Hints:
The chain is an alpha/beta fold and 186 residues long. The chain has a single domain (16-154), classed as 3-Layer(aba) Sandwich (Rossmann fold), CATH 3.40.50.2020. It is built from three helices and nine strands, in the order E-H-E-H-E-E-E-H-E-E-E-E. Strands 4-3-2-5-6-7 form a six-stranded mixed beta sheet. Strands 1-9-8 form a three-stranded antiparallel beta sheet. Helix 1 (16-33) crosses helix 2 (50-57). The longest helix is centred in the N-terminal third of the chain and has 18 residues, at 16-33. It is globular and about 50 Å long. It starts with 8 loop residues before the first strand and ends in an 8-residue tail after the last strand. Mean pLDDT is 93; it is low at 75-80. Bound molecules: inosinic acid (IMP) and magnesium ion (MG). Magnesium ion is lined by residues 45, 48, 105.
Amino acid sequence: MTAAYEPYLQEILLDEQQLQRRVAELGRQITADYQQVDKLLLICILKGGVMFLTDLMRHIDVPHEIDFLAVSAYGHGVRDSTGNVRIVMDLTEQVEGKHLLIVEDIIDTGHTLKFVMNMLRARNPASVKLCTMLDKPSRREIEIGVDYAGFEIENKFVFGYGLDLDGRFRNLPFIGVVKPGVVLNE
Ligand code: IMP
Ligand code: MG
């Protein structure tokens, strides 16, 4: 039996052990940094941030709430962010006076996060910080301050651990590089 993802996978970039080790480190760092803080709210950006959030929060030993925000880029094309972003599903919690930590799968051009951070800042939180599992700095079009990053990666299209390939394979416990020639419909 070959696994369902195998036709799409060129190579594993970050395996499960590497990811889990790094997530635990980030959790410990966040725990240390937020010791003096009450009202911590983790904001997961759907859908890609889901795997990272659920793993990361197990390593954050500070009382906190979680919430979810779904955003979408117009004229989508995951590798072709246009800079136009809209809210698909808003938060359910109030953010005023709370310390917000955004939990995202990957920062590419930076347009999505810029929009999200501006929108959240306008709601008068106590602070806004950003935690991303992956960072592709070479793709950046907008400068953005990343407070916590799991791994910096090259400009390759990756999937797994929350990141999708045409909506699928978010469930993989590792992050893989897409095989050349695989056509993305999104
Ligand atoms: P940005 O606005 O260009 O930073 O877009 C970031 C979003 O693009 C992420 O939240 C992902 O949904 C998507 N994205 C960027 N690079 C990849 C990738 O290599 N694989 C899967 N999704 C990606
Ligand atoms: Mg995303």
